[in-house]
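Lab notebook: predicted structure, single chain.

Context: the supervisor wants predicted structures on file for every construct in the current expression panel, including those that have not yet been purified. This is the next one on the list. No modifications to the sequence; it matches the entry in the shared construct table.
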Amino acid sequence: MTLATGAYTFEATFNGQEYSRPFTIGMPIGVDENEASATFSLSPNPAGAVLRIIGLTEGHGVASAFLYDATGRLTLNERVSAPSAELDVSRLPQGMYQLRIDAGGQTQARRVVIAR
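Prediction complete. Output recorded below exactly as produced.
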């Protein structure tokens, strides 16, 4: 399930009490992943200090790599023109991330774990 950007309200009832909290999504949450159709691969995943992306720009020229943390905050943004790239993730906290690759008018996303 992917939620689009916009304003939402979370509503719940617990022990007879009703709760309501507004929140805003600044970027889509969730990823419809299909690893079989991915044109790139990641190594290693989980990553420690370096995340390698292989097959990035096959037939697309320049690609953009965006790494988002679990809160949706952009933590890394790099443009690459080689078929493979190494992203320095050594300064990022451990946890789950979403890597989004934009290349040739197409966007693909994959989950990444940073662990040490």
